[in-house]
Amino acid sequence: MSLTLAALLLAAALPQKGEPPLTPQTQVSGGPRPPEQTALRFDHADLQFEVLPATRRIEGVATLSFTARVPLTRLVIDLDRNLPVSAIAIDGTALPKAAWRNPEGQLSITLPAPVAAGASIVARITYGGTPHVAVNAPWDDGMVWATTPDGRPWVASTTEGYGCDLLWPCLDFPTGEPASVDLHITVPKGLKAPANGRLLGVDTLPDGRTRWNWRARQPNTYAIALAVGPFEEIAGSYKSRFGNTIPLHYWHLPGKAAQARALFEEFAPTLDFFERMIGPYPFADEKVGVVETPHKGMEHQTINAYGNDYAKAPEGFDWLFHHEFAHEWFANQMTAANWDDYWLHEGFASYLQPLYGRWREGESRYLVMLEAQRNRIVNAAPVVQGKLLNEEQVYEPSKGGAGIDIYMKGAWTLHSLRWLIGDEPFWRATRRLVYGRADPKPGNFAPRYASTAEFERIVAAESGRDLGWFFDAYLRRAALPELQIERGDDRLTLVWKTGADAPFPMPIEVQVDGRIERVAMDAGRGVLTVPATAHVVIDPMARVLRHAPAVAQFQAWQARATAAPAAAK
């Protein structure tokens, strides 16, 4: 058999995109969970991975330490059944194979003896197999098995949507974060494995393979990621405005030195912006880390995935690097306890981009970037539904989720809120949401969980106003408020209308012959004396998110224009 034919046969035997298939159970991340899972405090995870690019397999040993909050007779751990378990030990005692089962992707382990409330449990799970290959990462999750231009392996994982159980035995819901994680990633000779947290060391094995050892503090459940390749590294440090020194690292593909250096130069000014506006970088004792990946990107704590191909943009900075870096504060430091509140991740991360444009260039750049976001708001479903949801019920419109609106409508909700309550209360509220305190300094805070309801309470406290009507209008209802405008007899009458006829006393600016006046709109109505000959512009600086017929018409036209070529095929 020729080498070429052998290579073709080997490639045909390897799993392709979408293979092996996933069970419905594995595709669910978050949502209602078995009581045995919510009864666990996840104290520590020691995760050993070996990545085998030639066969597209991973082998793993996970040692998971828990504390039981109530008496337990079994453990329920999420793990894709494509990674079958070969051995389990509880507190050092090996279990017979009859003690565990995993028919659909939720591993049930019968404990050798009941565990009392407050007692610790250590489960050592040996597993391995062919992980699911992503169809279109990062929007569809799994492994990405790629090669560099010179043919060397280039591997990455992404698990936000389907969850951490695609890679390791975990608690696949937002509050299932382990308090700490040790990672040991073994890769073929000549490859590197940058990962979450702080590098403890690299071991070279007798056959040339290397084992990369990392330690991370309370990573988000989907933040633990594999990134393997023949990377080159740029390293430096940043002296923070808070007085501490933060390590900076970027791992990039060979042959990209100039582009990589230009991106690396964005790290320090972006970090300074976030620290000034929000507060201390949450993982300064570990690193700011970024790795070049064969998929677009993801907020993998302290090792953010970057795959934007060094694209240039008129705003002068890399939006993808900036967006994923924002998630170190809004996703990794502050994690929404329920997927229903994930607009707190995506809305803030999206809004901080036009704010950074404003920081760099002023109001004109801010408004231009906001306008691009405004034109993508769909308003098909509420951003917050007020119930326990899984990831797809939030991100997928086909499953009733708000989809892109958790990004764009979330950003505009924050834009209007900042104007309504003022800069100082807005940033104080943001700081308390992220850190759980008003005075964050390096070392005096830890990663935390938050919710929309908590943010609403914080905003009320900082602004001195009950703004339930505001959050109801923008987050809990799909349709935007509509401003009805009537003009006659030297009077301008403005009336807010909402689909639920709910109160909406949102003030609005009106420009009359160049002079801007803020109309209070108490009880949702305002009247202004305006000469019949005056030129009037409503909300000239686009402060308030509201129904815009022109935007709706544009979106409908755009949808028809997109559909026409597809229908003609």
SSE arrangement:
Elements (H helix, E strand, L loop, with lengths): L2 H11 L10 H4 L7 H4 L1 E13 L4 E12 L3 E7 L6 E6 L2 E2 L5 E2 L4 E10 L4 E10 L12 E6 L5 E6 L21 E8 L10 E7 L5 E8 L9 E2 L3 E8 L5 E8 L4 H8 L2 H11 L10 E5 L4 E2 L5 E3 L12 H8 L7 E3 L6 H19 L1 H12 L17 H4 L9 H17 L1 H13 L12 E3 L1 H12 L4 H9 L5 E7 L2 E7 L10 E5 L2 E5 L5 E5 L6 E3 L10 H20 L1
Parallel strand pairs: 1-11, 16-17, 17-19, 20-21
Antiparallel strand pairs: 1-2, 2-8, 3-7, 4-5, 4-8, 6-7, 9-10, 10-14, 11-13, 12-13, 15-16, 18-19, 22-23, 23-26, 24-25, 24-27
Helix pairs in contact: 6-7, 7-8, 7-10, 10-11, 10-13, 11-12
Characterise the protein shown here:
- The protein is 27% helix and 29% strand.
- With 569 residues, the chain is of the alpha+beta class.
- It is globular and about 90 Å long.
- The longest helix is centred in the last third of the chain and has 20 residues, at 549-568.
- Helix 7 (343-361) runs antiparallel to helix 8, helix 7 (343-361) packs across helix 10 (405-421) and helix 11 runs antiparallel to helix 12 (452-463).
- It has 14 helices and 27 strands.
- The strands form seven sheets. An eight-stranded mixed beta sheet has the order 5-4-8-2-1-11-13-12. It has a five-stranded mixed beta sheet with strand order 15-16-17-19-18, with helices on one face. Strands 3-7-6 form a three-stranded antiparallel beta sheet, with no helix packed on it.
